[in-house]
Specification:
The complex is a heterodimer.
Chain A (H helix, E strand, L loop, with lengths): L1 E4 L4 E3 L5 E8 L8 E6 L5 E7 L5 E3 L7 E6 L4 E6 L8 E8 L9 E4 L3 E5 L2
Parallel strand pairs in A: 2-11
Antiparallel strand pairs in A: 1-3, 3-8, 4-5, 4-9, 5-6, 7-8, 9-10, 9-11
Chain B lengths: L3 E4 L2 E3 L6 E7 L7 E6 L6 E5 L3 E2 L7 E6 L2 E6 L8 E7 L11 E4 L1
Parallel strand pairs in B: 2-10
Antiparallel strand pairs in B: 1-3, 3-8, 4-5, 4-9, 5-6, 7-8, 9-10
The chains are: A mainly beta, B mainly beta.
């Protein structure tokens, strides 16, 4: 069971946009909930969003209205569209999978490798 | 939001030591508490879920306990590969908050 984050990170100016992608393999992607978590340089982990297997979505206040989580089960892919980016959005972004036993109260058992997003002028 | 605290924030230990890390939630989260290990430059890895269940493939020297608001992660005999940062996380209520981490080093 693997999650691979496609090259979606990078450098963007404040106010800009970026989309992150995460693809699952070796499991039935459509059965699971997924989440995005970020980690600012030298800081701890911050949960930012999750999506159920039927696509209802939830967001942390810090990104609500600016970020959109989505999924394409046919492509076994998870996305995070990030708009109106701010300097304090600079972080490594991780996708992760809920265990699948009693979501959304599960732990996150499979993580992508992470993608660095830098917001700077 | 549920606030998570951890103590200590860092500790220095030796191979073979018994290590205990404490996590406290600002309100009851029943048993919805998970522990992760993170090494520098790597994604976190799940160690313990629902307070005391060992994730598959994780060595049995790791154990967790607690319920309500107070939880502990114990490493019974620290190994060289265990030097890392450990995070607790509550999965009771969104936002799913993490503790600030405990760095375990030599």
């Amino acid at each position: 069971h693997v999650l691979v984050m496609d090259s979606g990170g990078g450098l963007v100016k404040p106010g800009g946009s970026l989309r992150l992608s995460c693809t699952g393999s070796a499991f039935t992607f459509s059965d699971y909930y997924f989440t995005w978590i970020r980690q600012a340089p030298g800081k701890g982990l911050e949960w930012i969003s999750y999506i159920t297997n039927t696509a209802p979505t939830y967001y942390a206040d810090s990104v609500k209205g600016r970020f959109t989580i989505s999924r394409d089960n046919a492509k076994k892919s998870l996305y995070l569209q990030m708009n109106s980016l701010r300097v304090d959005d600079t972080a490594v972004y991780y996708c992760a999978r809920f265990q699948g036993w009693y979501p959304p109260n599960d732990a996150f058992d499979i993580w992508g490798q992470g993608a660095m997003v830098t917001v700077s002028s | 939001d549920i606030q998570m605290t951890q103590s200590p924030s860092s500790l220095s230990s030796s191979v073979g030591d018994r290590v205990t890390i404490t996590c406290r939630a600002s309100q009851s989260i029943s048993g919805y508490l998970n522990w992760y290990q993170q090494k520098p430059g790597k994604a976190p890895q799940l160690l313990i879920y629902t307070a005391s269940s060992l994730q598959g493939g994780v060595p049995s020297r790791f154990s967790g306990s607690g319920s309500g608001t107070d939880f502990t992660l114990t490493i019974s005999s620290l190994q060289p590969e265990d030097f890392a940062t450990y995070y607790c996380q509550q999965s009771h209520t969104t936002p799913f908050t993490f503790g600030p981490g405990t760095k375990v080093d030599i």
